[in-house]
Amino acid sequence: MLSTLFLLLYATRETVNALTADISPTVSYLLERGCANDTEIIDHLLFDRALYYNKHKLPSPQVDVRIEMWVQEVSSVSELTQDFEIDLYMNEYWTDPGLAYDILNPCQGNLSFDWAVMQNIWTPNTCFINSKKAQLHSSPFTNVFLMVFPNGRCFSKKLEKEKKKTLEKE
Q1: Would you say 121 and 42 are in contact if contact means Cβ atoms under 8 Å apart?
Q2: Could you give the domains of the chain?
Protein backbone atom coordinates (compact mmCIF):
# COMPACT_ATOMS: atom_id res chain seq x y z
CA MET A 1 0.00 0.00 0.00
CA LEU A 2 2.89 2.36 0.75
CA SER A 3 4.33 1.81 -2.73
CA THR A 4 0.92 2.58 -4.28
CA LEU A 5 0.67 5.80 -2.27
CA PHE A 6 4.21 6.78 -3.30
CA LEU A 7 3.42 6.04 -6.95
CA LEU A 8 0.24 8.13 -6.72
CA LEU A 9 2.10 11.07 -5.16
CA TYR A 10 4.86 10.79 -7.77
CA ALA A 11 2.30 10.70 -10.61
CA THR A 12 0.50 13.74 -9.17
CA ARG A 13 3.77 15.67 -8.87
CA GLU A 14 4.70 14.76 -12.45
CA THR A 15 1.28 15.96 -13.65
CA VAL A 16 1.74 19.29 -11.87
CA ASN A 17 5.25 19.64 -13.30
CA ALA A 18 3.97 18.89 -16.80
CA LEU A 19 1.16 21.44 -16.48
CA THR A 20 3.45 24.19 -15.20
CA ALA A 21 6.43 23.49 -17.46
CA ASP A 22 5.51 26.28 -19.87
CA ILE A 23 4.70 28.81 -17.14
CA SER A 24 7.17 31.60 -16.56
CA PRO A 25 9.16 31.81 -13.30
CA THR A 26 7.07 34.82 -12.28
CA VAL A 27 3.84 32.82 -12.48
CA SER A 28 5.39 29.90 -10.60
CA TYR A 29 6.44 32.26 -7.81
CA LEU A 30 2.98 33.82 -7.60
CA LEU A 31 1.26 30.43 -7.54
CA GLU A 32 3.45 29.29 -4.65
CA ARG A 33 2.96 32.51 -2.68
CA GLY A 34 -0.84 32.84 -2.83
CA CYS A 35 -2.87 35.58 -4.47
CA ALA A 36 -1.23 38.10 -6.79
CA ASN A 37 -1.61 41.84 -6.21
CA ASP A 38 -2.32 44.39 -8.96
CA THR A 39 1.31 45.40 -9.52
CA GLU A 40 2.47 41.80 -9.90
CA ILE A 41 -0.30 41.07 -12.40
CA ILE A 42 0.45 44.18 -14.47
CA ASP A 43 4.17 43.40 -14.50
CA HIS A 44 3.44 39.84 -15.59
CA LEU A 45 0.96 40.79 -18.33
CA LEU A 46 2.83 43.69 -19.88
CA PHE A 47 6.49 43.14 -19.11
CA ASP A 48 7.09 39.38 -18.66
CA ARG A 49 9.25 38.43 -21.65
CA ALA A 50 7.79 34.91 -21.71
CA LEU A 51 4.44 36.32 -22.87
CA TYR A 52 5.57 38.87 -25.49
CA TYR A 53 2.35 40.91 -25.38
CA ASN A 54 2.11 43.03 -28.52
CA LYS A 55 -0.29 45.98 -28.41
CA HIS A 56 -0.19 46.25 -32.22
CA LYS A 57 -1.49 42.71 -32.74
CA LEU A 58 -5.19 41.85 -32.65
CA PRO A 59 -6.04 39.82 -29.54
CA SER A 60 -7.68 37.14 -31.72
CA PRO A 61 -8.51 36.76 -35.42
CA GLN A 62 -11.97 38.23 -34.79
CA VAL A 63 -12.53 40.72 -32.00
CA ASP A 64 -16.12 41.54 -31.12
CA VAL A 65 -16.37 45.02 -29.63
CA ARG A 66 -19.61 46.16 -28.04
CA ILE A 67 -20.06 49.91 -27.86
CA GLU A 68 -22.45 51.93 -25.73
CA MET A 69 -22.65 55.69 -25.84
CA TRP A 70 -24.84 58.40 -24.52
CA VAL A 71 -24.94 62.11 -25.09
CA GLN A 72 -24.09 64.38 -22.20
CA GLU A 73 -24.52 67.69 -24.02
CA VAL A 74 -25.08 69.15 -27.48
CA SER A 75 -23.72 72.67 -27.83
CA SER A 76 -22.43 75.23 -30.33
CA VAL A 77 -25.08 74.49 -32.93
CA SER A 78 -24.55 76.56 -36.08
CA GLU A 79 -27.25 76.61 -38.74
CA LEU A 80 -24.97 78.54 -41.06
CA THR A 81 -22.15 75.99 -41.17
CA GLN A 82 -24.32 73.03 -40.11
CA ASP A 83 -21.87 72.19 -37.32
CA PHE A 84 -22.44 71.23 -33.74
CA GLU A 85 -20.40 70.08 -30.77
CA ILE A 86 -21.32 67.12 -28.66
CA ASP A 87 -19.97 65.70 -25.40
CA LEU A 88 -20.57 62.01 -25.06
CA TYR A 89 -19.65 59.08 -22.87
CA MET A 90 -18.54 55.97 -24.68
CA ASN A 91 -18.13 52.47 -23.26
CA GLU A 92 -16.36 49.69 -25.13
CA TYR A 93 -16.36 46.00 -24.20
CA TRP A 94 -14.09 43.35 -25.72
CA THR A 95 -12.08 40.27 -24.76
CA ASP A 96 -8.29 40.08 -25.01
CA PRO A 97 -7.02 36.57 -24.16
CA GLY A 98 -3.51 38.03 -23.82
CA LEU A 99 -4.70 39.98 -20.77
CA ALA A 100 -6.26 36.99 -19.00
CA TYR A 101 -4.71 36.55 -15.58
CA ASP A 102 -7.02 34.12 -13.81
CA ILE A 103 -4.16 31.59 -13.53
CA LEU A 104 -2.35 34.04 -11.21
CA ASN A 105 -5.03 33.75 -8.50
CA PRO A 106 -5.67 37.52 -8.26
CA CYS A 107 -6.38 39.08 -4.88
CA GLN A 108 -9.10 41.29 -6.42
CA GLY A 109 -11.89 40.64 -8.91
CA ASN A 110 -10.60 43.10 -11.53
CA LEU A 111 -7.85 45.56 -12.36
CA SER A 112 -8.52 49.26 -12.98
CA PHE A 113 -6.20 51.32 -15.15
CA ASP A 114 -5.83 54.87 -16.33
CA TRP A 115 -4.72 56.32 -19.66
CA ALA A 116 -1.01 55.58 -19.09
CA VAL A 117 -1.51 51.81 -18.92
CA MET A 118 -3.99 51.82 -21.80
CA GLN A 119 -1.22 53.01 -24.09
CA ASN A 120 0.52 49.64 -23.55
CA ILE A 121 -2.36 47.38 -24.59
CA TRP A 122 -4.51 46.81 -27.67
CA THR A 123 -7.68 48.89 -27.66
CA PRO A 124 -10.38 49.28 -30.32
CA ASN A 125 -9.75 52.14 -32.72
CA THR A 126 -13.24 53.59 -32.70
CA CYS A 127 -13.76 56.54 -35.02
CA PHE A 128 -16.66 58.76 -35.99
CA ILE A 129 -17.51 59.41 -39.63
CA ASN A 130 -18.18 63.05 -40.62
CA SER A 131 -16.32 64.29 -37.59
CA LYS A 132 -14.31 67.47 -37.99
CA LYS A 133 -12.51 67.15 -34.70
CA ALA A 134 -12.59 64.63 -31.86
CA GLN A 135 -10.68 64.74 -28.62
CA LEU A 136 -10.71 63.10 -25.24
CA HIS A 137 -11.72 65.30 -22.38
CA SER A 138 -8.50 66.02 -20.49
CA SER A 139 -9.08 68.44 -17.67
CA PRO A 140 -7.19 68.00 -15.33
CA PHE A 141 -6.23 64.57 -16.73
CA THR A 142 -7.29 62.38 -19.64
CA ASN A 143 -10.71 60.98 -18.77
CA VAL A 144 -10.27 57.37 -19.80
CA PHE A 145 -10.84 54.39 -17.58
CA LEU A 146 -10.05 50.72 -18.26
CA MET A 147 -11.10 47.70 -16.25
CA VAL A 148 -9.71 44.22 -17.01
CA PHE A 149 -11.26 41.08 -15.54
CA PRO A 150 -9.34 37.84 -14.84
CA ASN A 151 -10.72 36.11 -17.96
CA GLY A 152 -9.38 38.90 -20.23
CA ARG A 153 -12.69 40.73 -20.62
CA CYS A 154 -12.07 44.48 -20.93
CA PHE A 155 -14.27 47.49 -20.26
CA SER A 156 -13.25 50.99 -21.31
CA LYS A 157 -15.04 54.24 -20.53
CA LYS A 158 -14.17 57.65 -21.89
CA LEU A 159 -15.60 61.12 -22.28
CA GLU A 160 -15.14 62.62 -25.74
CA LYS A 161 -15.78 66.01 -27.26
CA GLU A 162 -16.75 65.98 -30.92
CA LYS A 163 -17.16 68.69 -33.51
CA LYS A 164 -19.36 67.22 -36.19
CA LYS A 165 -20.73 68.31 -39.49
CA THR A 166 -24.34 67.33 -40.00
CA LEU A 167 -25.51 65.55 -43.11
CA GLU A 168 -26.45 67.95 -45.86
CA LYS A 169 -29.74 67.67 -47.71
CA GLU A 170 -29.47 66.80 -51.36
Answers
A1: no
A2: 34-165 (2.70.170.10)
Length of the chain: 170
CA distance 82 to 84: 7
- Long-range contact list for 49-58, CB < 8 A, 24+ apart? 50/24, 50/26, 51/24, 51/98, 53/98, 53/99, 53/121, 54/122, 55/119, 55/120, 55/121, 55/122, 56/122, 57/122, 58/122
By CB atoms closer than 10 A (0-12, 13-18, 19+), residue 41 is: buried
The per-residue pLDDT for 18 is: 45
Q: What is the tens place of the pLDDT at every residue in 36-74?
A: 888 888 888 877 766 678 888 999 999 999 999 888 888
pLDDT for res 126? 81
DSSP H/E element including 67? strand 66-78
86 or 27: which leads in pLDDT? 86
